[in-house]
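User: Hey, my collaborator sent me this sequence without any context and asked if I could get a structure. I don't really work with proteins. Can you help?
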Amino acid sequence: MEQSKTISAPQSRIHVLDALRGFALLGVILMHMLQHFGVFSGAPTSEPQFPILDTAIQWLSQHVIMGKFINIFAFLFGLSFFIQMDRGAKKGIDFRKRFIWRMVILFAIGIVGNSFFTADILPIYAAFGVIMVLLFPLKNWILIVIAILLLIGTPRIIATNYERTVKTEQTENIPQQSISNESNKNRQATPNPITERPSFLKSAKRNLTTGFVGKLNYQFGLNGRGYVTMALFILGLIVGRLRFFEEVETHKRRNVLLFAVFTLTCFLVSLIPLQEVTFRMLMSGVELSPFMLVSMALKDIQSVLFSGALALGFIILCQTNGIGKYLNTIIPYGRMGLTNYVAQSIVGGTMFSMWGLGAVFGSWGITEVFVLGLAVYIIQAIFSKYWLKYFLYGPLEWFWRSATYLKIQPFRKKE
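Assistant: No problem. I've predicted the 3D structure and written it out in structure-token form, which is a compact way to encode the shape of the chain:
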């Protein structure tokens, strides 16, 4: 069959998935805003203007937003992968090679976002997308086993044992003074962003070099965030095979039951006493005990369960009369998910960078940046709604689609 054929049209979409993607991106931008997009602005922190609200929002970010909404976003990527492969198969098209090329394009788009925001996740998603093509032929039970191994922290356990072995050998064979001198040398070689004259090019270079390496360490080091993401990709593929979302409108009772199961299981896991393992501890090279490894695995599992409960709760609300019509207003936002995510990275990076508007927004407190995130999201939602009145796709969605098929795709809606 011809590889140049397209496999889907903008009309043949599952609207609840677009709404869910828009919901996920709300949490993503709010969390990134609270983290100032990981950018050092150089602006002095101002006195808290809303201390009570600051405390409440900080609790919300730590217990509800952080890691949960990006989990939904990752799950939907895996599900979208299945939908594209499945639609291609139904039309007699082997979409695997085309999908790999599609991931190459996504990686390039992600590099642009990465120039503004070092934690932009798209390059990682692109690499995982290629792995998904290799995993696609596997049976569901094998995929479930792989996902479980990733969620229980198997790569982290292997890495910890390996590092413990290497550290023991280094301690035995290398003089302590040499280690200290090398550490000081590396510390001195690290550029100080405060003394550098800020510019976008310098910031982009840092984001794409040392920043990118730091992101890889976060994703695939002891924190292991990337392995959770890969597990969610696989779970999205499995759920797609089960045709869950194709029947979601007709199985409302099942949705409520699953929501209760996810919520109860998440609550039961939260009752287990866990040892707190912070990012700072991981970066300081603290040796992880078996109990700490178990704690980290259970926290990852709890995060995934929480995300599942959030997603199912949102779907139930979408199917509720009176509430659903309001939640459906973010369907256009989700349809333009790629455009809106990259725009978040560009806007956020510009707002908080020293070369941008960091002197203005860098000093803002928790409540102020939270409201700022809501404002940016609302503006994007309004823009998405009116854009899709006249165009078939978002700007980046159209570019991605055209580049995928190496052919200019229809863009404007016919009047």
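In plain terms: The two ends are 33 Å apart (CA to CA). You can pass these tokens on to your collaborator as they are.
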